[in-house]
Amino acid sequence: MSGQSLTDRIAAAQHSMTGSAISKAVCKATTHEVSGPKKKHLDYLIHCTNELNVSIPHLADTLLERTTSNSWIVVFKALITTHHLMMYGNERLMQYLASRNTLFNLNNFLDKAALQGYNMSTFIRRYSRYLNEKAMSYRLAAVDFTKMKRGADGVMRTMNTEKLIKTLPIIQNQLDALLDFQPNSNELTNGVINTAFMLLFKDSIRLFAAYNEGVINMLEKYFDMKKNQCKEALEIYKTFLNRMTKLSEFLKVAEVTSVCPATMGISIWSESQRPSFLSDFI
Q1: Contact 183, 130 (CB under 8 A)
Q2: Dihedral of the alpha carbons of 172, 178, 183, 185, in degrees to the nearest 10
Q3: Rounded to 5 degrees, what are φ and ψ at 21?
Q4: Which residues form the ENTH domain (predicted)?
């Protein structure tokens, strides 16, 4: 379907009549057009997250309501809009989403009626699980790992051992959920899933940076750890190596499809590059 549907136009008109600018913007960002949400609507919603007189619960609930649609296009675009606001909106939106007992409940979502409905429904279920995990990570760590300060004096490089061993598994869980999106190049067939994949790609780069710096910090502290901490650190490290294989596959899809500039200076340890003092334990 190209262009806004009659349903989209009627819904937007209703919100105009009731004076709900946020609802109208959400409606326009999540139309039945098979393309990503338009930048002007996303920019307006980002602006809303920074306005103190805007109700964040109302904004979030309006987005969540759009995920109850039967249309894979509307639901996918509602998830994309939410993800975009998580990344670029005011942090109080992330705080609110993380405070909810439930966020997206789309494990059984299936659009049987539309072209591409079956295939896209699979990715909707996976994408919603990632966004749930992203919110859960914020709840557990009180920080968005994709936005934290990096470098030698960054958060993960200066974190103490005890907190590091608690934090790295949280990052692992979020990265697992992201990599479980698992598209191949033949499945990135429209502007909606491509937009979602672009956002996931950006998160993967930033998550990896935090993850990698945390592992470096952990290895530097290894010989000063207690025995039980050493065991936990080894398990975290083995898990890290497995994730790097999956991340490499994810980035290859991005590179092959030209959806994202997949190289971007990412360096993933090869088998020969892993720290030698731990090799005997793996």
Answers
A1: no
A2: -90
A3: -65, -35
A4: 14-145
Predicted pLDDT of residue 273: 47
In this structure, what token pair is assigned to residue 54?
């805007």
Contact criterion met (CB below 8 Å) for 110 and 158: no
Segment 216-219 long-range contacts (CB within 8 Å, at least 24 positions apart): 216/157, 217/156, 217/157, 217/158, 217/159, 217/164, 218/161, 218/164, 218/165, 218/168, 219/275, 219/278
Confidence category of residue 261, pLDDT binned at 50, 70, 90: low
How far apart CA 15 and CA 3 sit, in angstroms, is 19
Domains in the chain, ordered, with CATH?
1-143 (1.25.40.90), 145-282 (1.20.58.150)
Given a cut of 70, whether residue 59 has pLDDT beyond it is yes
